[in-house]
């Protein structure tokens, strides 16, 4: 059991962990890959060393996992909501109890700071706890018809749902997708990112330990080919995907062939608008939170920072001053605030965006360079210094395209009308933000921004009670909040005739 890997976590440090456990999970246990000829190395971002091998699942393994999930769904869906809730609450309790160990393993596989990872694990158990609370409330509607006849609706599970996760929040996304699915009576087959395969299996074991039927939450490893097999499988009722727009389009296209329901949580290039009447201290902190969490690898980050011209010099001065002193280094140290990017190719891609910005006329006020920590064991890690860009224009590559790294692009604006138009001039629509003391302006701007979320006088807070999802090419469907129950269930109408049939024949 993987509890063994968790038990090694208290004494583990960066550069010491090797994962040898099998990473697939169905039928209530870890499953050895059928063949290991096409294994892919998984790297520890902070050191660049190989953490483990990820062996992608083929057609037979995907079929086995889905059949295991279907069998579990048949049992789970017949349980009362309150019965499901008790099991989910136990899972949340176990996660809460092991949060430090899970967070540490997450950091080793993902590269983010331990401070952030602990918050991620807390959000994960809170999400499961929240949907446990909703499991017993699922209900339909009664409709009175003439002559004593009536109709009623039943909210029923979909069946086997597929979750496809991203590498920036591995454990949290697995929880966000599975919690509402399981609360509604579904089973889930989850495919983590091939770069972060380690912690979703821990969640599977915790669900089993909490009392869920074997197979209810399965984990299959793999990349695009395994994802394709999942999307095409006839026993899958729904696919929930978090990732890039191009891959999201493919998931949607593949799922449409089987008329499967789809939730897509895709990329973003979100605007953060800072008016001159803001509380500047909060606006600066908000901009840092909007750009540098998880090394900037967050889909809803407010990377287009629009600052009203009158306060632009003071804002830049403060932001640069604070960005320069962000502690970058060993992500397992409590004092670290920025760890390593996910991979070497991704680091090079982000640095390439900074170089392109300079060519197009942007001015680097700080950062944007490879960073080599003083600790020798981190020499091969994927670190860079957080970057602030000035002299940006709306038509620059760094302003239009999602960089997915610690790069903030700052631009001046003059009027509210102008900045709303510029903020909405993008194919994305995941999030947005506004800092102002004017309450009327705050709500007016929020109404006019074309995005699934608008933060007022804060940024990047994600309470599980609040729906999250995008407009435009940032996707559709929602995660978190009560509304997500509708995305993991279907409505059946039952019409009851209490009198005689009126026939035309």
TrEMBL record:
Belongs to the aldehyde dehydrogenase family. The keyword NAD applies. Its main location: cytoplasm. The keyword Magnesium does not apply. It catalyses: 4-(trimethylamino)butanal + NAD(+) + H2O = 4-(trimethylamino)butanoate + NADH + 2 H(+); an aldehyde + NAD(+) + H2O = a carboxylate + NADH + 2 H(+). InterPro entries: Ald_DH/histidinol_DH, Ald_DH_C, Ald_DH_CS_CYS, Ald_DH_CS_GLU, Ald_DH_N, Aldehyde_DH_dom. Converts gamma-trimethylaminobutyraldehyde into gamma-butyrobetaine with high efficiency (in vitro). Can catalyze the irreversible oxidation of a broad range of aldehydes to the corresponding acids in an NAD-dependent reaction, but with low efficiency. It comes from the Eukaryota. The active site is at 265. Pathway: Amine and polyamine biosynthesis; carnitine biosynthesis. Coiled coil: none annotated. This is Aldehyde dehydrogenase 9 family, member A1a, tandem duplicate 1. Keywords: Cytoplasm, NAD, Oxidoreductase.
